[in-house]
Amino acid sequence: MQEATFLILTALADGSQHGYGIIADVAEISGGRVKLRAGTLYTALDRLRADGLISLDREEIVDGRLRRYYRLTPDGARQLADEAARLRANAAAALSRLNRAEVAT
Amino acid sequence: MNDPTGRGDLERRFRRLLAWYPREFRREHEEEMLAVLLAGAADGQRRPGLAASADLIGNALAMWLRPSVPSSARAVRAAVGLMYAGAVLEVAALLTMVLTTDSVAAAVARREPAQWQAVHAQLVATEIAAALVVAAWVWLAWGNGHGRGWARAAFLIFFALTTVNVMGSLAQDGATYAPADLTAGAVLWLVALAAAVLIVTPRASRCYQRQPAG
């Protein structure tokens, strides 16, 4: 799973969000490191929706502009959980080996 | 023309960039993308930034080129990848030719001064042909990636023509770019061969529509 995909799914993990909300949330989660742009975001949202990982939650018109809210599907939540577990296992392995190396020296 | 904030200008320019996307995608996402783009714009901004423009156009092109056959159709996906690789190699060959046109023509002219113009014209003709071949690789990759039956047939014809061309260069000695030209031709032919084999497998056949349109 690419990092942008992982962060988009994470942004949707605790509730539905619209496009601009996802961009702001992803920037916050990544500590300002990942700034999604509209083209990249909607290409990803389109693909994630086609793959059944997210779905359309609702639409609103705010100041005459369309806002669409997306939410995670059960399948999307499962894949995000799998990926998070994988990343945690990798991180734990890295940290424990670094600790061991530190103790040895 | 009463647009002191420049929002109207900016919106029109964003729409022009969004026009790069496939129609179906635009119907689905244009309005919300526009809302996101405008929400992210600075006050008084009249033109899309360079990075935003590059992101929109780059993603639009990628969307056009990306195969739409299911990712389970591995053979067709692999063939499409090879066709794009063919296009990239052909571009590399074309660039080499363009960059060396003058020096090659000059080298020939030193031996046969009367021939300079003819050789130069021939090189330019070869370069135009190579540019058309690049377009053919991309077009066929797109068609096969979208499961179009005509694209499969067209690729097989393209492969046959490539074969004839390589055989022709092998038979004829004294090609202008002799060894390098032959090597490039042979590599491209192998790429085409692999792609042709992949798209005629029975498993690949299921990904192609019978009707050319739709």
**Helix percentage of chain A:** 55-70%
Poorly predicted regions of chain A: none
CATH superfamily of chain A: Winged helix-like DNA-binding domain superfamily/Winged helix DNA-binding domain
CATH hierarchy class name of chain A: Mainly Alpha
How many strands, which pairing sense, and closed or not: the largest β-sheet of chain B? none
What this model shows, in words?
The complex is a heterodimer of chains A (105) and B (214). In chain A, 61% of the residues lie in helices and 18% in strands. With 105 residues, chain A is α+β, with helices and mostly antiparallel strands. Chain A has one domain (3-104): Winged helix-like DNA-binding domain superfamily/Winged helix DNA-binding domain (Arc Repressor Mutant, subunit A). In chain A, strands 1-3-2 form a three-stranded antiparallel β-sheet. In chain A, strand 2 (54-62) and strand 3 (65-72) form a beta hairpin. In chain A, helix 1 packs across helix 2. Chain A is elongated. The termini of chain A are far apart. Chain B is mostly helical. Chain B folds into two domains: 7-65; 74-205. Chain B has helices spanning 7-18, 23-39, 50-65, 74-111, 116-145, 149-171, 178-200, 202-205. The interface between A and B is medium-sized, with 18 and 23 residues.
Which helices and strands appear, and what pairs or packs with what?
The complex is a heterodimer of chains A (105) and B (214).
Chain A: H1 3-11, E1 17-18, H2 19-29, H3 38-50, E2 54-62, E3 65-72, H4 74-104
Antiparallel strand pairs in A: 1-3, 2-3
Helix pairs in contact in A: 1-2
Chain B: H1 7-18, H2 23-39, H3 50-65, H4 74-111, H5 116-145, H6 149-171, H7 178-200, H8 202-205
